[in-house]
Amino acid sequence: MQTTTFGKTGLTVSRTSLGCIPIQRISYEESTTLLRRAYAGGITLYDTANMYTSSEDKLGVALSDVRDKIVICTKSGAQTGDIMLTHLENSLAKLRTDYIDVYQFHNPGFVPMPGGADGLYDMATKAKTQGKIRHIGISAHKYEVALKAVQSGLYASLQFPFSYLSTPKELTLIEECAKHNVGILAMKGLCGGLITNAKAAFTFLRQYENVVPIWGIELPHQLDEFLGYEADPPSMDGDMLKQIEEDKVALGGSFCRGCGYCLPCPADIPIPMAARITFLAGRMLRENYITEEWQRHMRNIDNCTHCAHCKVNCPYELDVPELLKSQQVGYFAGLG
Questions:
Q1: Which label site among 2, 178, 283, 314 has the fewest CB atoms less than 10 Å from its CB?
Q2: Phi and psi (nearest 5°) for 54?
């Protein structure tokens, strides 16, 4: 397993790391088996969050006995320092630890600063002084927020979506992080399922030495695939380059990344999936997306209330209602 120094934290971490959103969907027994297998395979960094239901607890159950040998990153989406402290205490209890290696503000719409009225950064600094937090990080989906955080010098790490579908503008953050010695946790390396060539995704991100991808894994064969790439790292070849270019052309920049910040929808439209349905149906098992249930979901787009919640909250500034309508038209045209 290759390792790297994670920015100014000085922590040595595995270059293949685990994102723990998916373990919400599996049992405690299954998650323990998966996490122990990941640890045995050399994975030392695990990313989770307060809002990921059972994720923190499952991570604590599985790996608390090797706590000193792993790096735990978790997050709080609190808007005030007092609530953040409550989240922190809950996370410590669930993770069965007395410190968090990297504690991140979870996709705030602004950059928490010292002396801010929200009290977030000051509370994090206090917790760091108490030894409950070792390093302060931030998770962001908006480029402007991410760039400001990196350039502020206040943050040890940035979590941001990086994949071979990232725009040149987004990829400049890698250079900025290197310049400011900020560790990068690359989320959505498979772009929420739109990228189906895991080897190409792995190889693309491996080009950047300061990037630590956190792969969302819930099944043993998925874990084995990435551990296999670690054991025998593939090289970027002509077929991979061709796949990458084809995907860039097919998806362009106006596609849903599946982050879920558009939710909840008052019309009960499953926006992150519905906004990508034609891509998903074309790249995965088509039968999964032409069921009566999915046809009902796609018809339900007609019941959009035009409340604008999805559009206002999209970190990528997509016209979500228009995207949904275009996906609806493409979906039913595909049904023939």
A1: 2
A2: -85, 0
Cα–Cα nearest to 315, from 276, 241, 235, 260: 260
pLDDT digits (tens, 9 = 90+) for 264-285: 999 999 998 898 888 777 665 5
In the block, residue with structure tokens 């640890």: 39
Is residue 20 within 8 A of residue 61, CB to CB? The reply is no
Of the chain, the percentage scoring pLDDT greater than 70 comes to 98
Residue by residue, DSSP assigns 150-210 as HHHT--SEEEEE-STT--HHHHHHHHHHHHHT-EEEEE-TTGGGT---HHHHHHHHHT-TT
Task: Tell me how far apart the alpha carbons of residues 28 and 40 are, in angstroms, rounded to a whole number.
Answer: 18
Residues 6+ apart with CB under 8 A from 123: 81, 82, 84, 85
CA distance 220 to 240: 24
Give the chain's domains with CATH numbers. 3-244 (3.20.20.100), 271-335 (no CATH)
φ, ψ (nearest 5 deg) of residue 59: -65, -40
pLDDT at 257: 81
**Measured between alpha carbons, how far is 330 from 45 in angstroms, rounded to an integer?**
40
pLDDT (0 to 100) of residue 195 = 86
Q: What does the alpha-carbon distance between residue 15 and residue 34 come to, in Å, rounded to a whole number?
A: 18
Please give the Cα distance from 297 to 270 (Å, whole number): 7
Residue 173: which of 190, 148, 154, 156 has the closest Cα?
Answer: 148
CA dist 312 and 308 (Å) reads 6
Closest of 49, 113, 129 to residue 81, by C-alpha: 113
